[in-house]
User: Fold these one by one.
Assistant:
Number 1:
Amino acid sequence: MSSTLSALAPVFGLIVVGYVLKARGLFGADFWEPAERLTFYFLFPALLVSKIGGAEIAGLRALPMAAAMITATLLMAVALMVVPRFRQGDQGGPRFVALLQGAIRPNTYVGLAAAYALFGTAGLTLAAAAIVAVIPLVNFISIIALLRWTAATHSAKPGWGAALVASLKNPIIIACVLGAFLNFTGFGLPPVVGPILDTLGSAALPLGLMAVGAGLNFEAVHARRSTITQAVVLKLAVMPGLTYAACWAYGVSGVSQTVAVMFAALPVAAGSYVMTRQMGGDGPLMAGIITATTITAGVTLPVVILLAG
């Protein structure tokens, strides 16, 4: 337990640093959004291409883990859509869509940092496999839900095919695929480009985690505490439980099982707020869910990793 806490302490410590820097206004309000874009579109992809391109890829051994994670995500999403009580209450549809996203969308920044801190390059490679398996799926489900249950009906909303294409254009997913291609083909990282990518990637985790902290919104947590509590329980307790059961069913064990369950127990992705706001959903509620799951995960994630291991 102490080794897990020691590995995760810097991850959540950097989130706290980001929150403090934003609260103190040391860099101005306009600094954090460009910093997050830089991380998402450039630094994190560089990290993934560098580490996966030169790593020992798990290959087909990662397929059962990916299948378990996909199964757990689909079970959670379908259960929320089928049970009527989840679609009732304050603000109806928009509230439900925020709850749905809160239950299934993981924060890849925290996931990559935690996997790397705990298991090194092997953990990062498995986390990359988890990203490729889950991120397109949760983005697709989220957009479908926003199209189906939000009250806004403007023509800018994408169709289902466009939702899938947009998910596959995610720069983190593209970087995972490119890194795997370089590894599987034996090309590896070019002599000059490889060290450059490695240096750029070293800045990804600290800046990305601080950007997560800068995005925390505690005022939004108090607005709808009942729904936010539901989201916290579903994301940080039920979702890891479903993933653990799916791993058992698919015969996944060892580090693969731990990474899969850990990934399921991550706080909610900050990008959920942007998508929700742009597509007419309940932005303030989504911000509250992101904040509450991020703070609570600082306590629950080490416990989940210990139980999964």
Note: The chain has one domain: 2-308.
Number 2:
Amino acid sequence: MKLTLQNPKIFSDIVTIISELVTEVRIKINKEGMSLVAIDPANVAMIYFKIPNTLFSDFEIDKEEEELGVNLSNLKAVLRRCKIGAALTLEKQDNLLKLSIRDRIKRDFSLALIDTDTEEKPLPEWEFNSVIKINSDTLTEVIEDCSVVSDACTFIAEPDKFVVEAHSLNSARAEFSTDEAEIHSGNSTARFSLEYLSKFIKGAKISNQSTLSFSDNHPMRLDFHTGDVVLSFVLAPRVEQDD
């Protein structure tokens, strides 16, 4: 297996984002590209990413599918050594993942591949009652606003309105019409942990548009797309009724 990224920043950003949610993962490589599905230790959130083979300048695999069990903290540390303009090559050799960085000098790293006992689950395909497409920076601001006053927020969607609000002793609220967001919705209300959402919205690094999908008291999905690269999160709802 030999993969080369001429611009590894997007891969580095994705690894950094998901490393805040999971530590050990299995990265899969097949003829279509690189992908990952992982569940956080609390079994509350699911993470998915896909990088297509077209993004790699070299894409060679020796078998139908390769699996790389990696510690994301270690991988993130190496990827941070990639500066702008550097190329990154990944090769699997026995029980090692070889990473080569090429810029002014040639630098080589080796990471021990690990056995992971993570459960294999596909990313769920649900029908959602509400789908909101919104600027990623705007969504980030709203989630950060809610985090100031509470540890959970409520999404409320109607055919022509989307509201994000949080309540405790204090409160925060943001409302969007169809002028500020693309709203495809019936009437939906669901409540989610801001601890997780605050980590999810770091996906704004890879895409300036985000898609938020949810239904009444149902897991939500947050997608960031840039070209054919996909970063997605699924989050179970908070069940208590009072902030």
Note: The chain is about 15% helix and 45% strand.
Number 3:
Amino acid sequence: MLSSIRKAIKSALYPFYEWRIVSDLDFSKTPRHVGVILDGNRRFAKANPSSLDTKGHRRGASKIVEFLGWCDEAKVEVVTLWLLSTENFKRTPEELDGLLKIIGDTVDELRATGKWNIKAVGALELLPPWLSEKLANLPPVINGGVEVNVAIGYGGRREIVDAVKGYLQDKSAHGANLEDAAAGLNVEEVSKYLYTAGQPDPELLIRTSGEQRLGGFLLWQSALSEFYFCEAYWPDFRRVDFLRALRAYSQRQRRLGA
């Protein structure tokens, strides 16, 4: 009984708490690009054994549309969501197949809203044909909101290797020899061949579940990013948690190496 009363009081106070955080935010410092490691789905399922979700992944997937709405409100331009890493392919075939199905359903749900341009970033050749073809043929949305990168079959080291390969293959196709290609290789050239080419680098990276590491997420792009680690599992991630991340970001002095 007492526990229920406490929960009711907290629920009643949250709108006021959110208003206080928003009042402290400097929206002129809102990050253009936010990257998110959606971590903690399986631990959420273990902590909620009555959940009927597939190891918490469906519950986590249902949070994505809500989260993107918060990003629209905050005027974020680009969001990169890490849905599946290259390391995840080491999981059992049964778990991996279930996860891929959820990811496919999630992409369909995002498309159905008609709100956001969706771009798949990752090694799509690692995915089953039905999913890689779906991701390779995502239609553009005219006057869409946040540009959403869904990182699927993604690994930061793999991305850098693919970028260098893409650069060398392009130079070779235009008649350059290896010596000339090596001489022209620089930071700007590599950036042109990243999965996120043409987009701003992420100013803010968020990881849920309490883990304080990037695990290879956007290795190249995160050189000057600010990091925010949240204790909540991804399915439990709330608007107030997102606002806290934005507030923390807006209060930091970003010297950018100076």
Note: The longest strand covers residues 78-85.
Number 4:
Amino acid sequence: MFLLLALGSFAQEVASPYSVPVDSANSKKQYFPTGIRIGADILGPALQLFDERKLSYEFTAEVDFSNYLLVFESGYQEFAEKNDQVDYRMNGTFSRIGPAVNFLSRDRDLNSFTFGLRYAWASFDEQVTGAVTEDNWGAVPVDFTIRNNTSRWFEMTTGVKVRLWKGLFTGYIFRFRFGRGGSVPEVPFEPYYVPGYGLAARASTWGFRYYVMYRFPWAKKPVKVKKKN
């Protein structure tokens, strides 16, 4: 974090090929979008090496408006868990959309330290197979499949992105997920695991992802700079 702040401070004093200072000629243009940053999470696929129950792919896109961002994220997730009685499997997609504010709006290289809000939703299928032991009936076969289940929730996020080379960025994001709700179909069990959220029984969950991104500009971004005394 200190490295990023120092980087941002240094960037105020040097020229940048990625931005121009705000002045009377372009002050109105600072709130026009000047590019889109598209990326993919590299942590989700890597974590499957350590936890075979989970497989996750996630992509993100953000458009900047001065020190504000409009962010859209989408992904796919699988989760499987097995014990002596049942085998549970889930697969589905999730998406998020929302604004974020960049506290490094003076950084001429367009690095960012952000706080944001998201509205998220998911659609997923669940399957449970196996046998449950009943006192009077012994082992009772279980085979349930629930399709097109849905869920929704809210998120607060904070993260950092740093330019590596030209349009290439890398960075991380922390998520706090809360307020989950959704459909309650007439099925033998309620949702167990929600893609993009986690265990459905939890009132809130935390998340962490690490992205590699590329920014496609269509204009240099006007940025505010400190006036020299």
Note: The mean pLDDT is 86.
